[in-house]
Structures are given as structure tokens and as C-alpha cells.
ABC transporter substrate-binding protein
Amino acid sequence: MQRKYFNRFLLAAGAAAAMGWPSAQAQTTEISFFYPVAVGGPIAKAIDGFATDFMKANPGIKVNPIYAGTYQETIVKALTAHKSGTPPVTSVLLSTDMFTLIDEDAIVPIDNFVKTADDKAWLGSFYKAFMMNSQTGGKTWGVPFQRSTVVMYYNKEAFKEAGLDANKPPATWAEMKDAAAKLTKKDASGKVTQWGVQIPSSGFPYWLFQTLTTGNDAILMNDAGTQVKFDDPKVIEALQYWVDLGKAGVHPPGVVEWGTTPKDFFEKKVAMMFTTTGNLTNVKANAKFDFGVAMIPGNKRKGSPTGGGNFYIFKKSTPAQQEAAFKFIKWITQPERAAEWSMDTGYVAVSEKAYGTDALRKYGRDFPPALVARDQLPVSVAEFSTHDNQRVTKALNDGLQAALTGTKSPAQAMKDAQAEADRILRAYK
């Protein structure tokens, strides 16, 4: 009775405790695993498949995936469960949640479980660009899993129609603005029927903005996550460029929805879009026209922020559960499974060894767009992340949306965002 009541309580709270019950279940270690379903596609099915395969290979461990909503909803549920003493054993959360999870004393370093030469080789095998948001203070806190960069998708048919080279997407800001002007279509009444370019500014505005700041050779924060540079002239110039695309009539005005941007692309309402490589499989399945994938056009340099989620192990679970979670994380990130995950979703496989598998080599040969995000990694930067990350990010997002809706100038918007971020981060300096 007590157990039934306890389970009902956990379900109501949106959290799951993984506890070893006495008697018959003493042999099984249960891992509750919060997973954010935030990108289109049959992702939950793929995760369930991995969990089943792992349990077959490891009969003493039970993996219980719990689909917790968006990344934002999942971190709230995970921290609420942590504070009530019933956290998940492991969770995939944004790589940028690292400082928040450390500050909440919610997670343990992955290094605690790395004991053998094989463990060390595995931990050293991930792409360096992905480890920028996984390590701090000489410790590894997260393991890259569903990681990404932002890429530019473009409609090759629209390019040909506009007299542009479909195999030569824009590589610079100037080229992109020029191409966007040629790709913008209007009907007889002057209403835009196809925008040249679309950069979403809801959902993850700061992340899409980083595609512009990186291209303008500006870094938004320091490595320690204690200082930001929103009022840097190069940052303001990047925001001005975004605002000017709207003023030029080649980009939709105001705030552009993250979730509807791929749909707008499929419906030919936009010819070029910036979004995650995690949308690649979605685009491949739903674009009824020839499309291309390109690196983000730059101004002073090329580049994109990395993005996506890491595995974390929660502190309040038992040592046996933590060890079991580590075993699962190591298993699911092996090259063959990382390759399979990349092909199923469009996320970047997290290690070079994954791209060396026969399956992913063949997939890359047959479908070259799958390699663009990987090829962008050498010029990628860490995704924006600081202490008290959600509040600092909100200050930046509010500033971006104020500039894009015209309520503040880019300079004023970034000055105000800087002042708010400085106030929040004062405690961490």
C-alpha cells in the first residue's frame, strides 16, 4: 500500500525516484531517466528502443525513461524533484544547465566513475567543441549526447528560380542579405509570400543570436560563467544586422517562432532558415523540394555555437544507481549507437569514432548534408551559459526581442541587458 501511494505521489509530482525495493527486487537497480522531448520526430520511440536493448544486455538494471516535456520543463522538474529528495538518477538536460546544476549541488562529476583505461579513453573521445559546455573547474559534469550546431537550410529550387547558384549558398553576411533580397517574393498587393531568410527569435533567441555574434568574432561570456559582454560593440553590430534584415523587408518583422520555422520552410514561406541540425531528419522527411544545408554565413569569421543536451548523474541517488547510470550513459554513447542516434535524429554524433563507423560513413556519402554540422565543429564556440543561467539568459532574450520588435535600439537593448546580467552575476564574482 505504501509503495502504491509513493508511486502515485511521484507521478503527480512529475518526478520519479529510483529506489531499490527489498526482497524480490533487491537484485535490480532501477534508474529513472528524465528525457526532454523538444524536437520533432520519433525520438521517444528511439529512446525506448535504446533502453530496452540496454536492459537486455544488463538484466540487473532497469531503465525507466520519463518524458518530461521541453528542456525548460525538464530542468524545472528535475530540480524540483532534487529539492524534494527524489531526483531522477540521470537526465538529459541542456549542456548550458551545467552551472545551475552545480550551484544547486544537484549532480556529481562524471570523473567519479571513470576508473579504467577504457573509461578514460571513452571520456577523451568526445569532440572538444562539445566538452566546452561539459567541463568547468577541472571536472567533467556532463556527457555529450544529443548535441548540435545551428546550420542554414535553403531551398535549392527557390535559389534556381531567383537566378542564384543552388550549390553555392551565401558564405558572408553581405552575400546572405543580397541573396535574401532576391529570394523574397510578393503578391500583386505587395504582401510577402516568401521571405528570403528567417532566424527564429522565440524559444532559444540567445542561441540563434550567437550565430551572428560568433560570425562577428564576439564571445558573449567568460569560461567561468561569471561575466557577460552584451554591450560589446561587436555584439551590438550583430544585433543591428539582424534588425536590419527585417527593416530591409527580407526577414519577417518582430518575433519569429522557433517551432513554426521548419513548417514555414516546408510550405515555401521562407527560402533560407537558421535552425538546429537536430531538425535535419525532420526536414529530410517533410521538405518536398531539393534542399541544401550550409554552415552559418559569417562576417569577420565562420562559426556557430554548439547546442543540445548532456547526460548528468544526480547526487541524491544511491551509489549503486549512480554506477548503473554511468554504465547506461557509457553504453548509449558508444560509436555504433551514437551513429544510429545521429541518423535517426539529425543530431551531431558526439565522437569522431562514431563518424568512422560503416553505417555513418555510408550515410554521409549518400546524404552529405548530415556532415555539415560536424564539419562546422572546428569553428564552433561554447553555447551561452553562466551561473544563474536562466535569469541571465532571460535578460539577453528580453533585450533581443525589444530590439527586434523596435521598442529599443540594439545599443540600448544590449546596454540594459548588460546592466541586468551584471546585477544577477554580482554574487558569483
